[in-house]
Known about the structure:
Blueprint lengths: L15 E4 L3 H11 L5 E4 L12 E3 L13 E4 L4 H9 L6 E4 L12 E5 L2 E5 L6 H14 L4 H16 L5 H11 L2 H4 L4 H14 L1
Helix pairs in contact: 5-7
Amino acid sequence: MTASYSIMMHPKDAQVVVIGAGKVGTRRINQLLDGHSDILVISPELPESLVHKVRWEKRRVRDSECFLASILVLCTNVPKLHDALMRNRAPRQLIYRADQVAQSDFHFPASIQRGNLTVALSTHGSSPYYAKRLEREICDILPGTVEEELAFLEEARTALKQQTMSQTMRAELLKRISAQTFLNDPNRKEKFKLLAKRRGEE
């Protein structure tokens, strides 16, 4: 298996073209809509739920075409068309190929979103069902307080960045307040303010 690296992108300014809007294509479009508002879908059909959310060209794609979009998502049931579009790819274009995930430049991992927490899982196409099962198991063990705890930690981190203190001292304080015992304290906000004030005076 070719080595791959996990990254998180914010493709809001990227041009995205999706070819095909069947079951898989619809799922990929919905995933892209979470972080991207301008998506062009080229397909003879499009689910009613997506008609007002994407730009739609109601047609079939020819194998002689070349798309200049930054991201190209191939979700038809015609492998030969995918082969041709990959040969015609634009420079530096990222392509996802639903029928041959191993040939894709990126993947759509199973993911869990809880506020500022994102957990992504991928089997690199070996078994999406296995990834979904792991996703459910992880959901079951995540504490229900994840969102509020991360919101508190984000607020605390922002506040500390505005204070004058050494990087080492800031790191020690951030580590201390991220401990579960500290997060469980109902007076954690007040205690954090006191700790931050003391460190700022040292």
